[in-house]
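User: Here's a structure from my thesis project, written as structure tokens. My advisor, Dr. K., wants to see whether a designed sequence matches the one we expressed. Can you design one independently, without my sequence as a hint?
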């Protein structure tokens, strides 16, 4: 039952997050990514920290102190994941960001595991080949994007390079955060507690950057309503959904559910007038998603322990 609800949470998360990715790519042309990060993450920190205090009282701070090293790693993972995501969406095609962020984690994990230990079973050879095909596909896709062969052609080469670096960091943060969250759940942490403490580093860096770069924190009235929707529906709701997905599913199953994210993003991104139809991007996203699906199914068939909880 937990697995089915986890899949449900994950599918809804992917749909909302795809719309979020497309909209962030559009709105960051008018608002600094640092301002979006500040508004989104200060809202979620306040909401979930206050709820944690309401449920647990001051004991939640003692709990945080006892697990400080893990919480620091959680904050670093969130900084990489969300910081990299929001910045990359400013410069790259949303579907490319979506597939790169979900493809790198499982593929890199499989490649590293194979190199460290060659005794991974009869399916490890196929997994290794598929993982390398995925990585080569991602590299070629990002290179094409760097050369301007994607749905977003209005950015400079330097901006696209920044976007590519950020999406790689986002992928690293995604897989790291999944495993750290699982460890926190093993230590009896609740979803709202994790969400209350995970944003501190992100907020600190966003505030310092805004002050240093003299970025105005106010937004005009035309963008006030979209920002509220972005914070509530685009950020608060999705982070709650994905946290519950992670809680209920194995990391590999989470990765498989997240394959829907770039598919939804590919379908929705053309509502953004900046994005042109790019058959190179469509082909790359489709092929990598299929390879990831084959990799995930192969892992599940080859390892009965990952078939469910």
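Assistant: Designed independently from the structure alone:
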């Amino acid at each position: 039952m937990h697995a089915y609800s986890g899949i449900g949470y994950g599918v809804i998360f992917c749909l909302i997050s795809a719309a979020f990715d497309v909209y962030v790519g559009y709105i960051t042309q008018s608002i600094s990514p640092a301002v979006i990060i500040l508004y989104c993450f200060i809202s979620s920190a306040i909401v979930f920290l206050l709820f944690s205090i309401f449920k647990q009282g001051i004991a939640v701070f003692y709990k945080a102190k006892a697990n400080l090293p893990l919480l620091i790693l959680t904050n670093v993972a969130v900084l990489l994941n969300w910081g990299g995501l929001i910045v990359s969406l400013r410069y790259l095609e949303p579907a490319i960001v979506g597939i790169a962020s979900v493809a790198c984690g499982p593929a890199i994990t499989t490649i590293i595991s194979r190199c460290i230990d060659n005794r991974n079973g009869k399916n490890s050879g196929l997994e290794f080949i598929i993982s390398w095909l995925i990585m080569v596909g991602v590299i070629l896709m990002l290179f094409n994007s760097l050369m301007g062969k994607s749905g977003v052609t209005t950015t400079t080469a330097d901006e696209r390079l920044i976007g590519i670096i950020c999406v790689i960091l986002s992928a690293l943060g995604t897989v790291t955060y999944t495993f750290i969250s699982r460890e926190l759940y093993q230590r009896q942490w609740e979803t709202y507690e994790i969400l209350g403490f995970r944003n501190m580093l992100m907020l600190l860096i966003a505030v310092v950057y805004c002050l240093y770069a003299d970025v105005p924190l106010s937004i005009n009235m035309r963008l006030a309503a979209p920002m509220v929707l972005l914070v509530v529906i685009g950020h608060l709701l999705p982070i709650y959904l994905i946290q519950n997905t992670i809680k209920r599913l194995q990391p590999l199953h989470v990765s498989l559910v997240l394959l829907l994210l770039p598919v939804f993003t590919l379908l929705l991104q053309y509502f953004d007038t900046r994005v042109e139809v790019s058959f190179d991007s469509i082909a790359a996203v489709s092929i990598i998603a299929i390879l990831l699906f084959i990799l995930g199914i192969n892992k599940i068939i080859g390892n009965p322990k990952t078939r469910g909880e």
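When you compare it with your expressed construct, this may help: The chain has one domain: 2-306.
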